[in-house]
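Researcher: Before we compare anything, I want clean individual predictions. No alignment, no superposition, just each chain on its own. First chain goes here; please echo the sequence and then give the structure tokens.
Model: Echoing the first chain and its structure:
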Amino acid sequence: MNYFLTEEQQMIRDLAAKIAVEKAAPVVAELDEKEEFPWEVMKTLASSDLFGVYLPEEYGGFGGGVFELCLVTEELSKVCCGMGVCYAASALGTLPILLFGSDAQKQKYLPDIAAGKKLAAFGLTEANAGSDAAAVATTAVRDNDSYVLNGTKQWITNAGEAEVYTVIAITDKAKGIRGASAFIVEKGTPGFSFGQKEKKMGIRCSATRELVFQDCRIPKENIIGREGMGFIVAMKTLDRARPGVASQGVGLAQGALDHAIRYSRERVQFGQAISSFQAIQHMLADMATQTEAARALTYASARMIDSGDDSISREAAMAKLFATDVCMKVTTDAVQIFGGYGYMREYPVEKMMRDAKILQIYEGTNQIQRNVIGLALIKEMAKKKV
């Protein structure tokens, strides 16, 4: 479908696709097997100025928005969803600063992130605070001109590799979630360390670790916004980041579909290519239709966000929910079309199916997305008094 990209957007998409095919594709299997972070690919993205596509020009960015971020993420995810999330997760960690940071914070951190000199990460999830973000237990206690952080964040993407971390911690336990605040913590700060790299089902080249804070002292200037804004910072950030997860799903689904089409033309059974069988054609037709529908919803939600509309929670949740559910189905169907070969590691769709599952889980499970959508529908109807 024609999504009427501008010349600049086409350039961004084509450049990301070129890097994905020429730099990422040759090392996908090796990095997955070794569970090794794709630093060379990240450096190529940095030298190509793609880390700043969603950041304002005044901070060294391209001046685009979530839509441009989705274009790059989609192209990377067609080849490797693990690399797509390494890229997108840096934006997730950056958004709190972009949305709520002070001018001084933006000037200090955004130029290096836009240039790809530093990656970012977002620290919200804990062992007992996953879908229930209100259960955050990490604390930040004010001590004169500093805050002292104690606690552990779990399953943090880019942990250990990133230089800049935006972290949600409780500053006033008596206020519950309204007592949460957001902070910037730099790698190398005394009292800030990382757990071991997690062994995962999929997206194995990405780094997932704990963030461990033990009397970690940071300057009071590192608070994002003001005390008590942490939950708002987190939710507004996730609203804007969810189309990025959706674009991972769209890219991964498209990559799996492409592999399935090629294989169906090459695989011969009963004296003819399996692409000639109606059963296979119908599977491919459904896969293509669902992927295109997911792309349309993802792009629409991203453009809605970039338009400045602040009522985006429902649409962002819909995009994340639909695109990632589609991705799981399409990658599963791709493995089915490959048959026994699809189950083997030497064929790409095996990894793609493994990678797809996490998209239904992180940045808000798809059950949580349905909660968000359902509540939004009910509130909207209540306002209409129908």
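Researcher: Okay. Second chain, same rules.
Model: Second chain and its structure:
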Amino acid sequence: MTRDFGVRLVVDGGQTMLRMGVLQESDQPVPPLREQVSVPGFQWTAGEDPVEQQCQRVVAAWEALGRPGPVDVVALGLAGGASDRPSRERLAPLVAERLGARKVLLTGDDVTTHLGVLAGEPGVVVAAGTGVACLAVTSSGQLINIDGLGYLFGDSGGGFSLGLAGLRAALAGYEGRGAATALTARAERRVGRPLRDAVKTWYRSPSLVADVAAFAAEVAEVAQADPVARVLCLSAGEELAVSVTAAVRKGFPAAPDGSVPVSWAGGVLGAPVIFEAFSTGMAELCPAATLRTPQGDSLGGAVRLAASAEVPHLASVVVHLTATARPEGR
């Protein structure tokens, strides 16, 4: 099959990494990827325009792919930065101009994650990585967000929250303010010695959020043997269950037991101790929910957008069309 306008690109962009892929030409409803690349994600800097920064990272990924074109469609799910509709309406034409794209479909990575994880079906998806985004999508196309409020005001149960709790417990154990824990030795290896002095240098790190979130993996690794770490992991799983329960109740208030699909994404729930607490919490708090194994990811959700899938998520998608489009330098 040939297309009149050229290649279709898909993007999943977050704080740590941005992925871009090229769709194969295919008659399948959800075509496979031909190739993909990864570039660094969005590290916010005071005084820098987040819309421009996001556009620059998208262009960097396109260049890493060899600037394929002419570009028919770019479907993007992006975290942070251009998170409100006016910002997205400014970003979409910028991406179209710099890639020479005929059509840009732009939404949040919470939406593309939901699309990929539940394969376009209604339900609730919680994405727990560095932060937490919980999204309910109803069959009528209503989108309801729970949490996703950032590392200072929300993201309960996410990687930053768990990593921070683990580092605080490590410091408390180090100073004798709290119970002795294996997390102290883990923190010393990651942060430095003496721990009390070394941790203060992290305040100057431009990657502080990512650095703290990375410690969540250390907390999960020692949780089976360390009671302090285990309590923190159980709390993270329970917090995620609370967020999902709120989303189910708001999006599907009259749903009978076992009728609302619930799934997940992100590395935090990959830890067995956290997932166990999450699934137990869901069973206790939300009988309307039924847990579904994830069927895809955020990049897969962007593929569904690029392939013009009919899904109930489209109210959140900013669409920009260009009458004539040529890539820069062509």
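Researcher: What stands out in the second chain?
Model: The longest helix spans residues 227-251. Additionally, The two ends are 25 Å apart (CA to CA).
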